[in-house]
User: Fold this.
Amino acid sequence: MSNNDQQWRVFKRLLSYLKPYKWLTFFALAFLLLTTVVKSIIPLVASHFIDHYLTNINQTALMILLGYYGLYLLQTIIQYVGNLLFARVSYSIVRDIRRDAFANMEKLGMSYFDRTPAGSIVSRITNDTETISDMFSGLLSSFISAIFIFVTTLYAMLLLDVRLTGLVAIFLPFIFILVNLYRKKSVHVISRTRALLSDINSKLSESIEGIRIVQAFNQQKRLKEEFDKINAEHVEFANRSMALDSLFLRPAMSLLKLLAYAVLMAYFGFRGLDIGISAGVMYAFIQYINRLFDPLIEVTQNFSTLQTSMVSAGRVFDLIDERGYEPHQENSGAKVVDGNIEFKDVSFSYDGKHQILDKISFKVNKGETIAFVGHTGSGKSSIINVFMRFYEFASGQVLLDGVDIRQYAQQELRDNVGLVLQDPFLYHGTIKSNIAMYQDLSDEEIKAAAEFVDADQFIQKLPDKYDQAVSERGSSFSTGQRQLLAFARTVASQPKVLILDEATANIDSETESIVQNSLAKMRQGRTTIAIAHRLSTIQDANCIYVLDKGRIIESGSHEELLALKGTYYKMYQLQAGSMGE
Assistant:
């Protein structure tokens, strides 16, 4: 598809967002049309005054002058109301587009976020939609206004003098040639400028989120050089865009307008008296040339905004049209009762090429705990990703209470499976809102959940207790405190299945005893799958599975695996030795 076709499709799609605001748009256009009519009448009034009353000031002349300035005042008021209505339409449309983009983003699967930088997504929903707003509030109104003014002005000029109108019309084809040239040359430059701005946002987001690591490893210089490189390229393309604007827009258009003035004045000088062109008509034509050229100049100046808006809208629509959703659930009405889990020969790959899980089979019943151990990349977290339905598995079967996991509604799964990650995520808000996760829970239920996992002890020592403010990602709390809050959040939802993804990996030994006690209480009566880094934390598991390159190579209780003296035994000896040191 050519750039022209693509931009036209994007433009038509943008216009479809006008439908809910058709009456508001109608009134905005009505005020715009009224403004152009008033603008066209003003030079006619001036022409009549110059030809008939300039040398004979009387009461009628004063009334005409009063009407003349009254029309200017009326034009200002009408134009203000029209612009206000267009602004309301514009911001309403941007709100709707942002809502659609955010809603679709929330449904996308993890694979999309694996390949798309967070800064790029943020840039599309904020910067790109703001550019669309500029198009609707400024460009669209100026473009429609230019059409109205063009038509009404030409009509008024023809009423005054056909010959002079013909002279001015000679310059109109040159205007359209300039606009077309600018459009063809600017598309690539503007597209690249917007893409580089997105890269800048991605680099900023990455640097801010990882600032501790950046400073810890003294990477400031490297990141600065990378940022400077992207920033410099952005400046280069922004300058190219400005150069095109400077060449094709106002200077070229202003030159055409001056030439039109020159031709008109020359014609009036040589032929005006002979063919009876009055001074009033000449004044009106000079005003009409301004009325004719200025809106066209404004439109061509805003053409870069149109190009930028089309590129930005295309990027936002790409996000809205993205269909890489999380795996589909059939929603057969199945309910999770006990939480018995079974994997049958499950294979999985992130990219469809490299096998991450290779015919994994295991079973765990209600109230039991199983654990997965293995070196980095062995497939431990992938088992969780498959069970949580973050990714679709290639073959095999995952059963929950004997029912294929695909048959459950997504909400049913989320309500009955509690996930605790190695690095717990806390939202900006309060402790209360983070535990409740915006569910309809009473203060007593929230407090009970915190007491159950022993989080209430440290919460009560805080100045505002459960109303204590939580900063971004909970950075004001220790890792152990954040983990206890994550436990309380999980317990509050009363899940039947508990998933622990290295929940104690980043916790110090003193806090670990508190966390382990909380975990033991959480696991009671629940089906639990644990991924463990510290083998000491899963010794009481009913069964421990040792993974290597996506396969289960050993399984059994802690004592049984030690007796095998295989991979698990070596891992345990290494950890025991390091702890002994």
Notes: The chain has a mean pLDDT of 78.
